[in-house]
Amino acid sequence: MKILVPVKRVVDYNVKVRVRSDGTGVDIANVKMSMNPFDEIAVEEAMRLKEKGVATEVVAVSCGVTACQETLRTAMAIGADRAILVEVPAEVELQPLAVAKLLKALVDKEQPQLVILGKQAIDDDANQTGQMLAALTGRPQATFASKVEVADGRATVTREVDGGLETLSLALPAIVTTDLRLNEPRYVTLPNIMKAKKKPMETLKPADLGVDVAPRLKTLKVVEPASRKAGIKVPDVAALVDKLKNESKVI
Amino acid sequence: MAALVIAEHDNTAVRGGTLNAVTAAAKCGGEVHVLVAGAGCGAAAQAAAAIAGVSKVLVADAPHLAEQLAEAVAGQVVAVAGGYSHVLAPATAFGKNVTPRVAALLDVAQVSDIVSVDAPDTFQRPIYAGNAIATVQSADAVKVLTVRTTAFDPAPASGGSAAVEPVAAVADPGTASFVGREVARSERPELAGAKIVVSGGRGMGSAENFKLLEPLADKLGAAMGASRAAVDAGYAPNDWQVGQTGKIVAPQLYVAIGISGAIQHLAGMKDSKVIVAINKDAEAPIFGVADYGLVGDLFQAVPEMVGKL
Predict the structure, then answer these.
(1) pLDDT of res. B16
(2) Nearest beta carbon to residue B184 from set A164, A234, A240
(3) For A6-12, what is the mean pLDDT?
(4) Is the pLDDT of residue A73 over 90?
(5) ipTM score of the complex?
(6) Which of A71, A216, B16, B141 is deepest in the core (most CB within 10 A)?
(7) Cβ <8 Å between A131 and B100
(8) Which long-range contacts (CB under 8 A, 24 or more apart) does A102-107 make?
(9) Looking at the complex, does the CB of residue A100 fall below 8 Å from at least one CB of chain B?
(10) Residues 265 to 294 of B: which have CB under 8 A from any A CB?
(11) B84-119, pLDDT tens digit by residue?
(12) What is the model's pTM?
């Protein structure tokens, strides 16, 4: 069984982005870029399925600029067998629907039984691509997974939902998106980084896949959110309770 | 021009977030209709018809819609979506699961987690964990939106008298089946809509210590929340997580205890009306957003606070 794992190159989790003063977006020049954390969990889950003997091949894919090669090398250092880059120039803003269409074309080509994606990317916070891919391929989906088991042509997936957990059984082929508690990704070791450099990486263009990636949404402006000012420090619990009762009157 | 709201419900009642989505839908400029897709969901449909501002309720009632799986609900939405200018759902686990599937089937973009409707085709939404607010315009024929519930007041749950119209249920795609659900039963209010939230972080130290917050939550009639660090450490259940990738809350009062205040956590609570922080580290970033900060030992402060309330 083959597993396809899409990974996105995003501004690192620890970077606090700055809004450009001209309102055109956020400044990502010279900031640290990393693999989207949810996608790292997706690669790890695919590797665990391979180590259990459920999967035979793990293929990482990324859509974006040339530098996404680094993200794919990271995926292969975690253990992915090979990688596909769908190269899109920096001036084209890739939106979730376009990415889902690119992935759909790759699913048609590669025929994976399982596609595991992060539930959301921490840059645009859209939380759309996995569900869109499921719709376009007509495959069942289990989003926000905290446990995945594969047996007898089905995936049994526990999902994090409001108020608790829900378990679904999906007929393969299927689409799964990861939540935080699915696993803890392994550390990438130097020997595996070296090995990853020798693994095959294919580069395609959207036109090779017959996909129009023109954006549907136009960003008119990007601004800083209304900032919240720090209040006061209270000396003790009595003062705190007094403020809540008599100043802000919230209790 | 009319907007269709996908109701989140449990077949007997409409869930809270639906009311906020109705308010957002009303701002899109036309009539507001609601789709209730479920099984034996007549009571939920009646509840939807009573929401102020709703002029029509479409009901698809079929056994395979009972658990409202994404495949079935999305197919149902697409079957009735013709003629609507907007399709909306609350940005809850339910809405986030279903709505992008609808957008892709309609071949349109989705605008996630909107916090403002500036014009029928222009919306504001947070990006980068709320560190920036983007204004986006959609050129698509149908605008598919998920609604950040804390950014829109709930529509009144009564006062409306919408017509209820049955629609044919689409066939069961049959590729996914429901196995089970573990829902934590609690007497406390639901986290997403609570007026007061008491949240604990890594500073609580253990799952046992986390229970220290329960008497405080009980005294305040509060829902309980947690930071990602506390959830990852196993101190609190997954669905208590407040933050960028967990729940977004904006209560009247948010009490952050032993929470340092990572940007991902602030993204989930900084729109609260009043924020209280109790932390022993005076330099913790949480104090940068707190209205009232108490630097001290939470293990003393929390029981003391319970005693004074």
Answers:
(1) 87
(2) A164
(3) 98
(4) yes
(5) 0.95
(6) A71
(7) yes
(8) A102/A63, A102/A206, A102/A209, A102/A211, A102/A213, A103/A4, A103/A6, A103/A61, A103/A63, A103/A129, A103/A133, A104/A133, A104/A136, A104/A137, A105/A209, A105/A210, A105/A211, A106/A4, A106/A61, A106/A209, A107/A4, A107/A133, A107/A137
(9) yes
(10) 270, 273-276, 282, 287-294
(11) 999 999 999 999 999 999 999 999 999 999 999 999
(12) 0.95
CA A112 to chain B, closest CA, distance in angstroms equals 16
Of B105, B237, B245, the CB nearest to A120: B245
A227, pLDDT greater than 90: no
CA distances from B251 to A159, A188, B149, B214, B272 (A): 26, 41, 12, 18, 5
* Token pair in block for residue B235: 């101190």
- Judged by CB atoms closer than 8 Å, whether chains meet at B109 and A216 is answered as yes
Q: Which residues of A touch B176 (CB under 8 A)?
A: 140-142, 168-171, 174
CB atoms within 10 A of CB A145: 26
Q: How many degrees, rounded to 5, is the angle at CA B68 between CA B107 and CA A162? A: 100
